[in-house]
Amino acid sequence: MKNKVMKNKKVWKIVIPVVIGGVLFGVMVINNAGRTKEAAAEAMKVEAVTVERGDVSETVETNGTVVSGEQKTIFSPVNAQVETAEFQTGDLVKEGRKLVTFDVGDLEAQNQKAELTVRANQLGYQDSVNKSNEAAIKQAQARAQADALQAQVNAKKQELENLQAEIAGEARSQMEEQEQKREELEARLKSLQKELKKAQKALEKSETEYEKAQMEQQTAQVNFEAAAAAGNPQELEAARETLNSANEKLAQTKGAYETSQESVSNLNDQIEALQSALTDSGAEVSAKGELQQKLEAAQAELASLETELESRKSMAEMDGGTLSGEARAQMQANNNLAELESKSLEELILEGRQGISAEFNGVISNKQVVEGATVSQGMELFTLQSIDNVNVEVTLSKNVYDKVKEGQKAEITLAGQTYQGTVSRISRIAEMGTAGANQAAVASAGIQATIHLDNPDENIFLGVDAKVKILAAEAKEVVILPTEAVNIGKDGTFCWVCEDGILMKRKITTGVTSNECAEITEGLEEGEQVITDPGNHEEGEQVLLKEKAGGDVQEEQEAPAGEK
Q1: Local structure of 448: helix, strand or coil
Q2: pLDDT tens readout for residues 117-172
Q3: Measured on CA atoms in the order 262, 264, 268, 274, is the torsion positive or negative?
C-alpha cells in the first residue's frame, strides 16, 4: 500500500509540470497572436480630415515702388532773375504755397528773341546740309541694291521655269501605286490594333488572376506557418495541401500572365514596324508634292524681290529726305519765337509778378532753379509730384500675372503703415526686370502693374519699396479641403478616400486656392473624410482612419467583416 502511494506521488510530480508548461505555452501563443493583430491594425491606420465649408482667398504677393500718380514739370513763364526759391528736392509742399518769385525789373525779352532767331537760322542751315548728304548716300545705296536685286530676280525666274518643267514630267502612276501601298499598310495596322486590344484585355485579366493567386499563396503560407507553430497535425496537413494547391495555381497564373505579356509585346512590335513603314510611305508620297511646294515658295520669293526692286529703283531716282532732328528743333525754335512775339511786355511782367505756386499737395523733385539765377522763358525749374494721387508700381512674374485683373483690391504696407488700394492698370507688354516678392528674385520678363492707393496720407514717401498683397480671387461658404490633402497626378487633381475600408483615389476639381486650403468645386461633399497622407499604402489596400491632430475624425473606421 505504501509503495502504491509513493508511485502515485511520483506520477503527479511528473504530470503537474507538464500541464503547467502546456498552459503557459498556450498563453504565450494567444498573446503573440493578439500583438500581431494589434500591430497589423496599427499599420493600417492613416490620418484623415473632414471636408468642411468655409471661406478661401487667393492672394498675389509682390514688392513694388511707391510713385506719384500725378506730376507736373514747371517751366519758367518769363525771362527774368529768380528772386526767391525757398525749397529743396524732397520737400513736402501744400497747395497754394508760393514757391518761386521773379525780379522782373531787368526783363530781357528782346534779347531772348534775338538769340532764338540766330539759333533758328543756324539750325536751318545745318538741317539743309544734313538732308543733302543723307539723300546722296541713300541714292548711291539704292542704285547698288537695285543692281543686286535685279540679278536675284533673273535667277529666281530661271528657277521657276526649271521647277515648272520638272513638275510637268511627274508620273501620276507612281503616286497611285504609292497610295495603294499606303492603304494596304493602314488596313493591316487596323487589324493588328484590334488584335492588340484583345490581347491587352487578356493581359489585364491574367494579371488580375496572377495577383489574386499571389495573395492566396501568401495567405496559405501564413496559415501553414501558423499551423506548424500550433503543432496540430490535422490542421498542419490541411494547411500543407492548401499551400501546395496555391503554389500550383500561382505557377499556372504566372505562366499565363507572362504568355499574355509576350503576346502584347509582339503585337506592339508589329504595329510599330507598320507605323514606321506607313510614315516612310507618307514621306515618299509627300515628297512628290515637294516640287509644288518649292514652286509656290519660289513664286512668293519672286514677288517679294520684284517689290523690293521697284522700291529701290524709286529711291534711287527721287530727291528729298525725311525731316531731321535739326529741322524739328528749328520748328520748335520758330514756335518759341512766335509765342514770344504774341505776348506783350505787360503780360510777361504780370506773369513774372505772380510767380509760381504749388497747384496741388506734393513733393518737390528735380529742382533746377536757384535764387539769383537768370532763367529764360520755357526753362525747366522743378517738378511737383502729388501725394494725394499715389500709386505703387509692381512687376508681376509669368507665374501670377494672369491672376491679377484691373479693379482687384490690394493691401499695401510701407514704413509700418498699411493702406488699401486698387489695381488700376496692367500693361499688355512684358518688360525685362526683377519679378518676384523678395531680393532673391531673378531678372526675367514681367508684366508691369499699377496699384492705386485709396487712402494716401502725409506719411507716404515716394520712391521707397512697398509690400503689396493683391486679392486675386475669393470664395465664401464653399466646400474646402486642406492643400496637404490635394494631390496632382498625370490624370489630374485627386485626393485619397476610404471606401468600405479600402484606400481609393477620388478625382476632384479645385477652384480658388490659398496656401492653406483649396475650394473643391467637384468630387467631394461637406462631411466626407479625406486621407491627408496614405503613407506606404497603395490604392486598393485596406486602411483604418484615425483622427489627425487637430482634425475632426472622431472614430476609427474598421475594415468590413471578413476582411480583417
Answers
A1: strand
A2: 556 666 765 666 566 667 657 766 777 777 887 888 888 788 878 877 777 666 45
A3: positive
Output the nine-digit C-alpha cell for 247.
Answer: 503554389
Give every CB contact of residue 516 below 8 A, 6+ residues apart in sequence.
482, 483
Say if residues 375 and 82 touch (Cβ distance below 8 Å): yes
Tally the residues of the chain: 564
What residue has cell string 512766335? 338
CB 102 within 8 A of CB 295: no
Question: Which of 229, 248, 228 lies closest to 238, judged by CA?
Answer: 228
Give me the helices (H) in 318-447, please: 325-342, 345-354
The cell numbers describing 40, all together, are 497589423
Any idea which architecture 172-287 has in CATH? Up-down Bundle (1.20)
Q: pLDDT, tens digit, for every residue of 268-318?
A: 888 888 888 777 765 554 444 677 788 788 888 888 888 887 887 777 676
Instruction: Give the integer Cα–Cα distance in Å for 528 and 416.
Output: 43
Looking at residue 548, the DSSP 8-state letter turns out to be: P
Q: Which fold has domain 46-56+477-547?
A: 2.40.420
What contacts 517, CB < 8 A, 6 or more positions away? 54, 56, 480, 481, 482, 483
